[in-house]
Amino acid sequence: xxxxxxxxxxxxxxxxxxxxxxxxxxxxxxxxxxxxxxxxxxxxxxxxxxxxxxxxxxxxxxxxxxxxxxxxxxxxxxxxxxxxxxxxxxxxxxxxxxxxxxxxxxxxxxxxxxxxxxxxxxxxxxxxxxxxxxxxxxxxxxxxxxxxxxxxxxxxxxxxxxxxxxxxxxxxxxxxxxxxxxxxxxxxxxxxxxxxxxxxxxxxxxxxxxxxxxxxxxxxxxxxxxxxxxxxxxxxxxxxxxxxxxxxxxxxxxxxxxxxx
Amino acid sequence: xxxxxxxxxxxxxxxxxxxxxxxxxxxxxxxxxxxxxxxxxxxxxxxxxxxxxxxxxxxxxxxxxxxxxxxxxxxxxxxxxxxxxxxxxxxxxxxxxxxxxxxxxxxxxxxxxxxxxxxxxxxxxxxxxxxxxxxxxxxxxxxxxxxxxxxxxxxxxxxxxxxxxxxxxxxxxxxxxxxxxxxxxxxxxxxxxxxxxxxxxxxxxxxxxxxxxxxxxxxxxxxxxxxxxxxxxxxxxxxxxxxxxxxxxxxxxxxxxxxxxxxxxxxxxxxxxxxxxxxxxxxxxxxxxxxxxxxxxxxxxxxxxxxxxxxxxxxxxxxxxxxxxxxxxxxxxxx
Amino acid sequence: xxxxxxxxxxxxxxxxxxxxxxxxxxxxxxxxxxxxxxxxxxxxxxxxxxxxxxxxxxxxxxxxxxxxxxxxxxxxxxxxxxxxxxxxxxxxxxxxxxxxxxxxxxxxxxxxxxxxxxxxxxxxxxxxxxxxxxxxxxxxxxxxxxxxxxxxxxxxxxxxxxxxxxxxxxxxxxxxxxxxxxxxxxxxxxxxxxxxxxxxxxxxxxxxxxxxxxxxxxxxxxxxxxxxxxxxxxxxxxxxxxxxxxxxxxxxxxxxxxxxxxx
Lengths: 261, 335, 263
Description:
Chain A has 261 residues and is mainly α. Chain A has helices spanning 2-20, 22-46, 58-78, 84-90, 93-98, 104-112, 119-135, 143-171, 178-186, 198-207, 215-222, 228-259. Chain A has one domain. Chain A has 12 helices and no strands. Chain A is globular and about 55 Å long. In chain B, the strands form 3 sheets. In chain B, strands 5-6-7-3-8-9 form a 6-stranded mixed β-sheet, with helices on both faces. A 4-stranded antiparallel β-sheet of chain B has the order 11-12-10-13, with helices on one face. In chain B, a hairpin with a 4-residue loop joins β11 and β12. By secondary structure, chain C is mostly helical. In chain C, strands 1-2 form a two-stranded antiparallel sheet. Chain C is globular. The two termini of chain C are 28 Å apart. Chains A and C meet through α2 and α9 of A and α2 and α8 of C.
């Protein structure tokens, strides 16, 4: 409960800071929108040349993309750790973190959050409503709860993977460019995994389970029963991956404290 | 009285990687890298009592920062024992750090973009300080450090001296019984330095706060610490009172003479030939300095001899400064 | 000239120092290419050709586009932004070299490094995994070589432009990000320009972006005739020349501003 109170303290501080640079805020939201638009344009252009993508229609693909945007927005808001190595290891900010009585990863999450990315969730929901309408999808009272559960699961999958990558800095003393590339790979979870070959499908399901951020959970709402099992696995995978990342983080911190920098 | 810090046979080793030179070397580094194990802190032991103010000194790379990092729980020792505030800093880190305050002179604890008091508020929550504790304690801190007018300014708009005072206040929000200061006065002007020293003395007095201080500026230590721990190449080479360091290593007195007539070193050596005196001449200012043992009788005899033979314009008797003592120790070694 | 070559060498050495990148980088780029390969295979489905490109040409296009990206891509806009904000640029301006030229050379050093340690081995590995088609015609290779050098310059010039804007905007991270996204789409990295609707192709014709990725990739896959290839390369060259103008203008204004504000 202490952590929740602290969380809101940080959020309040964050708002105050951001309000000082309103123009930046605007540009950032705009560039997020642009990024989402580019992805939608890609889908639209591609469907100018085909009607089905591995058996999925244009609106289904757009729906999956809309869903993907929601956990992704949560992830980008709270796991802004792409420059963890430079900021915390090379510049030694981790020392300061370690002299404070809050879990180190939680402190970094709080310090680096970028709440304006949450705006992406609004875009995502709008895209889903648009595509859902075109598809004539039904709506049941359980949907909002499952949606919430799947979104959290997806965010934890993303968070877990990126925390694990940040942990590399504890063992290797070099700056790595894995992080930005992983953003690229993460994007493939938003296409139906059955278009990929079995190795990649396996990777996207069990190794870097990005499929649980987009296509698997979205399949539930699209009524694709053959994927329901995976849909319901979403929160489980999220919790498992995130737990692994926390354990790794803790032992990474232990190692940092052993080796210094 | 209880010990705030107990350190026994503490050791910390680092792997130091060396890169080979040139393009070819860089390619070989891709595959394997050379490293050797370097002890940064080598088997040190000391104790600090509650309420003591201890100066921790040494040259760059002597192991000061590494020790501080081990005492604050940032680094774990390779071997040896550390007990701070009755706890092992490396276990139960979150509980332990509540009992210490840390100021890194070159690294900000405060949030860059928000007003100082907002940072304080956040830290107050982080350290679970109640309103009553905060009010009674911090109002005093804020007044003594004279930072009241700075509280509503964002940190990025503060000068270094202003920021440092705020950093100090921030480290004390939870009124810790033990305070670590790593180069707290680096780059500050004299007035701010004086204010900070004044303040540190006061909280030490009022709350019996233990203070461990590393600094390059020995005047800080002279002003604050009765005890110094001196480090060289990872080993403690002196641990004791600053006064006895001076007595032991303050190699006698220096007497500066200026003369009304032309004098050479030979003249002076001839005059004082019977006593143990070494003469030096500062060519530019025509000042002659006599180095003699710290013995009142000897010195008065020396002056009497010189004055009897030569016309003296000015005499100045100087004690060796701490800075010189320490330089001497590092130059010549302790033995 | 020596100092610029020295800068290329230094960058090369710096890249070598960060070695963990390269064990994983190629693997990850390959996964990246693979994902697009499957996406395009699914898009082609039963079709033999779309917009005159066969599925093999398409997968070659994807592979070469990404591997070429490793060559032309750099972060000098971000570096410039950081240096300007930290006030290091004032120091750089005192030094006896052209700051923008130096930045370009740093980018080139990085690019050459990635060409040898990333793009070429990556391309070999990818060609084992996916069916790709390499041209047997040596003119194609020469055209391609000229073309990716030009695409490096166009991309770097655009980066310099974005970097200089730091002088005028308080915070341009958003702009830098937006630029990257736009380039990925409009340069033809994600979709060949010929796949866009005609009206969009007409617009893109008047923009420099297709010189970054579309042109070299089309040349590499033999999707251009020799004539088309020469024309496209000339267009790239013209863009390199045109882009010098806004860079110089902005740079002069920026330097004036720097003198007035004192950095």
